[in-house]
């Protein structure tokens, strides 16, 4: 700040006030005299210049200096400025103190959780074993520490690998939701959402689509049909052509290759920033689920021999896509991968350190808590977390509750030794730097001693490329070496420091030109305020240092012209610089290798790149003088320049897309294969079929037999790999439960056989109904969370009565979705005079269990007229902690009761506990911690589960992490073809803590006013408001004035289910 004119002017203004300000008896300002001894000069120097930077302060001072009409008015304004400084500094210190307390508390919580987890895992490792395990993990994570990245650099090895993979036919799904995504002429830099991530995911999809063993790649994103964007973003599909079409692999089928698939969701006809997409995630998930199932069916006909071909993995990019990928992974039971690109907790810490906004203000602006929860869920659900650098793992992911590097090493060590992890899971972190397309690289002619330079100068004097002419028109002497920077006009890109370094170093100005490629713009006034402010600052600096003829800053460039820009810098023997404060990886650092020089910052991904390539210098982006010295060194020392160029040429292949994809695919194949367990052909999935008893029986037999085969298979596969051992660990501690499940499976099968016989006599029984979900014109899901059981029964009766009366006996169905166990549901149905056969399915225990009605209960072990869907249990088994989780919960309950001095404050509910739901009774809901605190506690101990408070907080349900009432509906779509758009869900104004999951998506929702209002206290301590989860203005959501038949009818008319 010492070089800023406004600071000097501010100090002069303070001094102009006179020495009386330091004298308590001074009469120059009554206000200051009343406040006692106060030295604005000393305060400003000590509290502001040395430790505070506030842009608004500058603006206020400019206004004050411009409008002051007299010395008295000037002094008054100065006084107000001083006190504003004091208030700002006090606010910053207060925020820093609060954040320091939070950090200390979080550190203690993590240490306590790690200690408790270690106590459960009582078998300690010896020092030698620990050291071996850490080394093994480093190798598994592709760490770049201490040497080059482990990458294939032999064409023979790559060809051998390709021949081994050619028989495979993978289907891979990538998800990247925000920004403007298309295959050609990407508008990178148009806005903050359309940057390096867009380029990365498009090139990754294209490269994967050309790899041996990959049949189909889908990049799912948002369909945008808005007047302010190009029409191409509204196209439903776009094929990504291979880079080398003449050398592309042999055509495998009509659906093979890589595609951008655009799913419509969110505001229609409007392009919105990523912060506003959160409420619309469920709508995207439902649309994406429909696309994947339809394509899986088509691929099954082409390459699957009639069996559906499910994705081998779903890969989410950024937090919003990670949230979506987790839900899709749970609905389909396929492996999930995640790449954060930039992380919410890291951004939150950086913003809090600035001290300009409180946590609440940051959350309002950036929806940061919603983003962080999505990233935590991604850690819960992911098998692999892919990063570009080791720094991202060590410095950023360790900020999250769900990831602990120390605990990860302990878990991996136990898996390696075949020791139980007691239900704890941690995703594997893998460093895979992004790849690069080399087809446009043209090595410069000539050697490093000048022959090539003469040719280059001749070419640059007569440029034949439009972008070259556009750049060189700025220069007085275009023959000088070019210093090139390519970044958005964003404060964190630190371009202003580069311009200052260039402007204040006369030898550098004499030797080189500076080119700034700062995105595309038409009018500065049309840019965002932040970008416009940075650009104006740069223009002022150019004017201050009189850099006209030395600096180029073209307004437009095409993405396809970026290689030509790099080539121009190489022809002039120039230097590429990335002065950003923090760069997670930086694709430009790979792209610029055609210029063969690198000057990245000393933080983030550039450190890893420099270690591998050794083709440039590292500088501190905050040190202006170091930047100037390094640039001068590179453009003046020809031997150094030549050495850097040779190193870049020698090692550039380490970042090719084929090698990136080879590592990527090897990681996918290392995951334990997961997909829907039942065996149904594509023809059966699409067939309307007959609703015969035999079909029903066959489906129930599939449910029973599939579980048994799955359990036996898991025991056999358990020793196959580290990942398999980790996934099977939960089952090892539950032998008794497995036997009980197999017994129940047998009972279901026998009960179903008798049910099938009865169906022949009575076609209205429930056993023959659930294969017909896809035939239903409408399915009504009753998911109200009432204050009393009597109110619940009344609403169920009223909904069934109203719907049946208005729609008759047509193709309609009902599903009951509650937190009650199946035995509690049976009691409620009996008390309400209802029959199980009136319903198609029962979603119980907050989504932990799924049942169907049965005609007979004589042979059922439970003695109830229901059959359990064991495929659903298998579907939601992923990362279920089992007995290890239950022991941790019981220990927490005991500790909590001791602290409260009440042995029954929280008590285990054995009657409500099932294989996939641990239930607890709560005496006083006001005393228990919030859902977010319980989730945090579980994640810190590497226990992955979904925590739900029900019945106004009087019960606690703990279920599998990817199980929920909303996910159960998606499962019914995948399993039985239930059309989600035909669902009408009834919910209250509020409800259990999983309430918001029932409202979003493509289904329709009726909110019954006055129902569930007492649950408001459950939602009072949320990380983020409900409007960050579902769209309050959705046309699919209507509010009913009450729960009477007339009100329900009116709501169905609004939804166009009934005609008015």
TrEMBL record:
Region (Disordered): 96-147
Biased composition (Basic and acidic residues): 96-118
Reactions accelerated catalytically: beta-D-fructose 6-phosphate + UDP-alpha-D-glucose = sucrose 6(F)-phosphate + UDP + H(+)
Ranges in coiled-coil conformation: none
Domain Sucrose synthase first GT-B per the UniProt entry, residue ranges: 169-396
GO-annotated molecular function: sucrose-phosphate synthase activity
Keyword Transcription listed: no
Domain Glycosyl transferase family residue range list: 477-649
InterPro entries per record: Glyco_trans_1, SPP-like_dom, SPS, SPS_C, SPS_pln, Sucrose_synth_GT-B1
Record-level GO BP terms: sucrose biosynthetic process
UniProtKB keywords: Glycosyltransferase, Transferase
Keyword set includes Cytoplasm: no
Enzyme class: transferase
Residue span(s) of domain Sucrose phosphatase-like: 810-994
EC number(s) from the headed UniProt entry: 2.4.1.14
SUPFAM superfamilies: UDP-Glycosyltransferase/glycogen phosphorylase
Pathway this chain belongs to: Glycan biosynthesis; sucrose biosynthesis; sucrose from D-fructose 6-phosphate and UDP-alpha-D-glucose: step 1/2
NCBIfam families, alphabetized: sucrsPsyn_pln
Function: Plays a role in photosynthetic sucrose synthesis by catalyzing the rate-limiting step of sucrose biosynthesis from UDP-glucose and fructose- 6-phosphate. Involved in the regulation of carbon partitioning in the leaves of plants. May regulate the synthesis of sucrose and therefore play a major role as a limiting factor in the export of photoassimilates out of the leaf. Plays a role for sucrose availability that is essential for plant growth and fiber elongation.
Family: Belongs to the glycosyltransferase 1 family.
Summary of subunit composition and partner proteins: Homodimer or homotetramer.
Name of the protein in question: Sucrose-phosphate synthase
Organism: Rubus argutus (Southern blackberry)
């Amino acid at each position: 700040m010492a070089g800023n004119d406004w600071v000097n002017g501010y100090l002069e203004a303070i001094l102009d006030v006179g020495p009386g300000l330091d004298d308590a008896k001074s009469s120059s300002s009554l206000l200051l005299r009343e406040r006692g001894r106060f030295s604005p000069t000393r305060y400003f120097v000590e509290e502001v210049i040395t430790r505070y930077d506030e842009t608004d302060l500058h603006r206020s001072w400019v206004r004050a200096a411009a409008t002051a009409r007299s010395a008295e008015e000037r002094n008054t304004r100065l006084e107000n400025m001083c006190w504003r400084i004091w208030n700002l500094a006090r606010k910053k210190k207060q925020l820093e103190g609060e954040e320091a307390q939070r950090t200390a508390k979080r550190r203690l919580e993590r240490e306590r959780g790690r200690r408790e987890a270690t106590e459960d895992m009582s078998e300690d490792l010896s020092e030698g074993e620990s050291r071996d395990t850490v080394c093994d993990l480093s190798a598994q994570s592709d760490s770049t520490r201490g040497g080059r990245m482990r990458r294939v650099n032999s064409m023979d090895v790559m060809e051998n690998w390709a021949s081994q993979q050619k028989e495979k036919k993978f289907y891979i799904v990538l998800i990247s939701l925000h920004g403007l995504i298309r295959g050609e002429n990407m508008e990178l830099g148009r806005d903050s959402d359309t940057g390096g991530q867009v380029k990365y995911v498009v090139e990754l999809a294209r490269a994967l689509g050309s790899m041996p063993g990959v049949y189909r790649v889908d990049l799912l994103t948002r369909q945008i049909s808005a007047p302010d964007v190009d029409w191409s973003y509204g196209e439903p599909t776009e094929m990504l052509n291979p880079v080398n079409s003449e050398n592309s692999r042999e055509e495998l089928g009509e659906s093979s290759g890589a595609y951008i698939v655009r799913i419509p969701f969110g505001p229609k006809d409007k392009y919105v920033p990523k912060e506003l997409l959160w409420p619309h995630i469920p709508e995207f998930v439902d649309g994406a689920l429909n696309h994947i199932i339809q394509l899986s069916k088509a691929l099954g006909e082409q390459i699957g021999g009639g069996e559906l071909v499910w994705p081998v993995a779903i890969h989410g990019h950024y937090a919003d896509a990670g949230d979506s990928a987790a839900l899709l992974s749970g609905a389909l039971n396929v492996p999930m991968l995640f790449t954060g690109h930039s992380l919410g907790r890291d951004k939150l810490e950086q913003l809090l350190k600035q001290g300009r906004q409180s946590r609440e203000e940051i959350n309002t602006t950036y929806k940061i808590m919603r983003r962080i929860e999505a990233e935590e869920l991604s850690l819960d659900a992911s098998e692999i977390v892919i990063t570009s650098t080791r720094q991202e793992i060590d410095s950023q992911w360790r900020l999250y509750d769900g990831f602990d590097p120390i605990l990860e090493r302990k878990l991996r060590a136990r898996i390696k030794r075949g020791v139980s992890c007691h239900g704890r899971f941690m995703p594997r972190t893998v460093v895979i730097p992004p790849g690069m397309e080399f087809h446009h690289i043209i090595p410069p002619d000539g050697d490093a001693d000048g022959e090539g330079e003469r040719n280059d100068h001749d070419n640059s004097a007569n440029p034949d490329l439009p972008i070259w002419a556009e750049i060189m028109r700025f220069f007085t002497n275009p023959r000088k070496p070019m210093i090139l920077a390519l970044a958005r006009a964003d404060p964190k890109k630190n371009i202003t420091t580069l311009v200052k370094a260039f402007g204040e170093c006369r030898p550098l100005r004499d030797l080189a030109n500076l080119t700034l490629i700062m995105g595309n713009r038409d009018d500065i006034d049309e840019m965002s305020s932040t970008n416009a402010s940075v650009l104006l600052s740069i223009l002022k600096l150019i004017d201050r240092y009189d850099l006209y003829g030395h600096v180029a800053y073209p307004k437009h460039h095409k993405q396809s012209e970026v290689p030509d820009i790099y080539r121009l810098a190489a022809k002039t023997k120039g230097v590429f610089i990335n002065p950003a404060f923090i760069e997670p990886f930086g694709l430009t650092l790979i792209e610029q290798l055609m210029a063969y020089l690198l000057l990245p910052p000393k933080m983030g991904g550039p450190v890893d790149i420099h270690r591998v390539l050794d083709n440039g210098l590292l500088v501190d982006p905050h040190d202006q003088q170091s930047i100037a010295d390094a640039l001068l060194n590179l453009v003046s020392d020809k031997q150094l320049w030549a050495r850097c160029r040779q190193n870049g040429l020698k090692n550039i292949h380490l970042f090719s897309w084929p090698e990136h994809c080879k590592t990527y695919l090897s990681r996918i194949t290392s995951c334990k294969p997961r997909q829907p367990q039942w065996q149904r052909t594509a023809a059966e999935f699409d067939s309307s079929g007959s609703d015969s008893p035999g079909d029903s029986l066959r489906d129930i037999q599939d449910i029973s037999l599939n579980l048994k085969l799955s359990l036996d298979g898991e025991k056999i596969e358990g020793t196959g790999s580290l990942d398999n051992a980790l996934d099977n660990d939960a089952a090892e501690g539950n032998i008794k439960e497995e036997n009980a499940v197999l017994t129940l499976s047998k009972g279901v099968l026998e009960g179903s056989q008798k049910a099938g016989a009865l169906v022949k006599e009575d076609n209205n029984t429930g056993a023959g109904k659930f294969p017909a979900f896809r035939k239903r014109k409408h399915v009504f899901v009753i998911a109200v969370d009432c204050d009393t059981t009597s109110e619940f029964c009344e609403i169920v009766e009223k909904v069934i009565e109203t719907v049946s009366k208005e729609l008759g006996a047509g193709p309609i169905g009902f599903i009951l979705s509650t937190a009650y166990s199946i035995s509690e549901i049976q009691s409620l149905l009996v008390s309400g005079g209802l029959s199980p056969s009136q319903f198609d399915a029962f979603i119980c225990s907050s989504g932990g269990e799924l049942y169907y009605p049965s005609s007979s209960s004589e042979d059922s072990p439970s003695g109830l007229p229901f059959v359990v869907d064991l495929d659903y249990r298998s579907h939601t088994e992923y990362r279920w902690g089992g007995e290890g989780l239950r022991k941790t919960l019981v220990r927490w309950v005991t500790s909590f009761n001791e602290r409260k001095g009440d042995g029954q404050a929280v008590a285990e509910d054995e009657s409500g506990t099932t294989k996939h739901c641990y239930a607890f009774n709560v005496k006083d809901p006001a005393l228990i911690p919030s859902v977010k605190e319980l989730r945090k506690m579980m994640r810190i101990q590497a226990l992955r589960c979904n925590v739900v408070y029900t019945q106004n907080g009087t019960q606690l349900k703990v279920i599998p992490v990817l199980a929920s009432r909303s996910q159960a509906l998606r499962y019914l779509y995948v399993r039985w073809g239930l059309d989600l758009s035909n669902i009408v869900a009834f919910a209250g104004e509020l409800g259990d803590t999983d309430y918001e999951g029932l409202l979003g998506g493509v289904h329709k929702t009726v909110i019954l006013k006055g129902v569930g209002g007492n649950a408001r206290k459950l939602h009072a301590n949320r990380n983020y408001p409900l409007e960050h989860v579902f769209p309050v203005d959705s046309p699919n959501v209507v509010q009913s004035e009450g729960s009477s038949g007339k009100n329900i009818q009116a709501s169905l008319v609004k939804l166009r289910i009934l005609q008015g």
